[in-house]
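Put briefly, the fold is written as integer tokens. One such record reads:
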Amino acid sequence: MTRTTDRWMTREGYERLQEELRVLRGLPDDDPDTAGADGGAGSTVPAPRYIHDPAVRQARVHTIERLLSEAVVDEAAPDDGIAAPGKVLTIRYDGEDEAEEFLLGLRDASVADRMTVYSPESPLGASLLGARRGERRTFTSPRGAVIGVTLLGAEPYRAFVAG
């Protein structure tokens, strides 16, 4: 799998990042108090409160520019049941009865409040890449625990939203 597919994001997420970039570029560098709580006139994305320092703001601008330039936007993933970016994965952790669903994609491109998003670079996401239905994988949590998880299904995001 190429690195580019790790940068899969929804159209909604892409547009939100574009708007955040527009807002960040419009903030004054000299007086953080003039930014206003709404992030600028007509803005739909409030200026993040942590970006009053021009150097921090510029670093965020560079990050967003990189994400947008590498993005694979809303491209339909193949419906092959294999865990990959752009798919809604259904998993079950070892010892749990309940299944969990999440979108495997770019974390900055969360799908509003409708669904959890895990990055393919996260411990869970990386462990599941390439897994097939019924396959059990393990990953190490940030606290060092080894966690087992079974892939119950992998459905393209578009098909999941439409269905």
Q: What stands out?
A: Strands lie at 8-9, 72-73, 87-93, 100-104, 117-118, 136-140, 146-156.
